[in-house]
Amino acid sequence: MKIDIICVGRLKEDYLREAAREYEKRLSRYCKLQILEVADEKTIEDASDAMAERIRSLEAERLKKHLREEACLITLEIAGREMSSEAFAGAVEQLKLQGTSHLQFVIGGSIGLHNSIIKQSKWHLSFSQMTFPHQLMRIILLEQLYRSFRINAGEPYHK
User: Fold this and answer.
1) 128-153: per-residue pLDDT in tens?
2) Within a domain: residue 128?
């Protein structure tokens, strides 16, 4: 299975880059993983609604360059569907059994995703009602992907 994680922004902290590298290494035995980063827009604190929309639009145009028609697009959204790790693993396995060979996960910038990206998504996923920094969300997604492959392979994982 091919998995792309398409992210707005770069990992700025060494500890986050190190964690991402570790999960990339672990996932390499289960899938072909590619992480694609697009530039984020400078976000002004207390930006107007119009300015926030403009920022999301600019970031969306960069994201769209990486989206593939044949892939199953999954957006990470606060308003998305929450599920347990086991349910997530089951959903990934079900997609695989249905013949889906390419998943693309999209993580927006600090003010979220533009509606044009959300509308293209086949699966709206939330890891929590809590808000996480988008850089940390990448690590959480990598960990949950790794956990899902371990669950689906019948290998031990931390409950």
Assistant:
1) 988 888 899 999 999 999 999 999 99
2) yes
- Report whether 121 contacts 74 (CB < 8 A): yes
Which amino acid appears at position 44 of this protein? I
Question: In this predicted model, what pLDDT tens digit does every residue of 42-70 receive, in sequence order?
Answer: 887 888 999 999 999 999 999 999 999 99
Residue 64 lies in a domain: yes
Work out how many domains the chain is built from and give that number.
1
- Asked whether residue 159 is assigned to any structural domain, the reply reads no
5 contacts 34 by C-beta, under 8 angstroms: yes
CATH code of residue 61:
3.40.1280.10
Q: By C-alpha distance, which of 4, 144, 6, 156 is closest to 87?
A: 144
Task: Supply the range of the domain harboring residue 141.
Answer: 2-42+50-150
Residue 107, strand partner residues: 7
Mean pLDDT of 94-111: 96
Asked whether residue 156 is assigned to any structural domain, the reply reads no
Q: Which residue has the tokens 């190190």?
A: 18
Token couple for 76: 């990470």
Phi, psi of 52 (to 5 degrees): -60, -40
DSSP 8-state symbol, 81: E
